[in-house]
Amino acid sequence: MIESTRPRLILLFNHSLTPFQETDARGFLGIDRIVVPHDELQRRWSQVPPEIDELTTWLTPLFAWLAQVARLGDYVLIQGEFGAVFHLKTGPDLRGLRLIHPHHLLNLHLHLKTGPDLRGLRLSVTHLP
Fold first, then answer.
1. How far is the C-alpha of 56 from the C-alpha of 51, rounded, in Å?
2. What is the pTM of this model?
3. Which DSSP state fits 5?
């Protein structure tokens, strides 16, 4: 089986996307697949203990998973505990991935619906070369 070269959407999210959000993401981002972490990693991302001293150690399995599944050009939708999101954005090598925060999707919709001037798109999706 030949794997698609279209980008995928990798979710690091505290909840699941609704069917409408999935359809919307596929249409606006041109993705062919949504990738989610397995249950244990999802719990780790969604339930960061407030008393933890070393967040990097807690997140290491997620960093390893992301490095294993991510491909150049994939989108990564990030939403979660502030420190975890910060560590993800500054920790692993994410070059070539396009990071999206939930509020960016709203901005993307507004830019696409307000006319042909798409200069603001760069503010909506962070692309790390």
1. 14
2. 0.73
3. -
